[in-house]
Design brief:
Layout lengths: L2 H11 L2 H22 L4 E5 L5 E5 L2 H15 L1 H4 L11 E4 L3 E4 L2 H8 L3 H12 L3 E3 L5 E4 L4 H15 L10 E5 L6 E5 L5 E3 L12 H8 L1
Antiparallel strand pairs: 1-2, 3-4, 4-6, 5-6, 7-8, 8-9
Length: 214
């Protein structure tokens, strides 16, 4: 074999260029596998030529993408609706009773059973009352509108407002087995149980002290 041909055969046997290309190709495949395994920070988009494009995102950027997609597909969720509630309208009935004139109207606005609202106020006020024929609430005792309004806010927070999205668009149902009340939000779909109605603080009046002495 001529020396020139022998040199070419030896050069082909020790040609390192192909080996370097193979190693480089294996390295690129390893990097792609590592990128695909990072699910929390990588978004894979199919390219037009059938290949793949990899884009890295931080956690905050991914959250922003999710919020943007939700707002685009559900524009009603991003709208802030302001709900107004009429203040309680009270009237004096004689010297020992208070009449809540728009009691039925407020119950309809909250979409709550008047009986449940009635039980709450009687427990919080520590008194007695009744609902007359025109669905007005008659309360024994003298009360100012601001005090009744503060109790109404307390009822709305506990038994009307959703704790997740702060929406008042909720329903109140009672479980027949556990006898617990549950609030179901019609906007975000969350639900929670509510505390049973308990008697609140009731200052002892002169009439109460007389009753205890008898």
């Amino acid at each position: 074999m001529p020396p020139a041909e022998a040199d070419e055969d030896i050069a082909q046997m020790f040609d390192l260029s192909k080996k370097k290309k193979k190693k480089k190709k294996k390295k690129e495949e390893t990097e792609k596998i590592n990128v695909e395994s990072d699910v929390s920070g990588v978004v894979v988009d199919p390219a037009a030529d059938g290949g793949r494009q990899y884009a890295c995102y931080t956690y905050k950027e991914l959250l922003d993408r999710v919020v943007r997609i939700l707002q685009e597909n559900n524009p009603e969720l991003s709208e802030k609706r302001r709900h107004t509630m009429k203040p309680p309208q009270l009237m004096r009935v004689g010297t020992k009773k208070t009449l809540w004139v728009n009691f039925q109207e407020i119950c309809k606005m909250m979409r709550r059973n008047p009986e449940h609202v009635f039980q709450f106020f009687m427990a919080e006020l520590g008194t007695e009352g009744s609902i007359d024929g025109t669905q007005r609430l008659v309360i024994r005792g003298k009360y100012v509108p601001k005090y009744i309004e503060s109790l109404l806010r307390k009822y709305i927070v506990e038994y009307v407002t959703c704790q997740m999205c702060r929406s008042p668009n909720t329903t109140l149902t009672r479980d027949s087995v556990s006898r617990l009340y549950f609030i179901h939000c019609q906007d975000c779909g969350s639900s929670r149980s509510v505390a049973p109605i308990r008697a609140g603080f009731h200052a002892q009046t002169r009439a109460d002290r007389r009753a205890l002495r008898k």
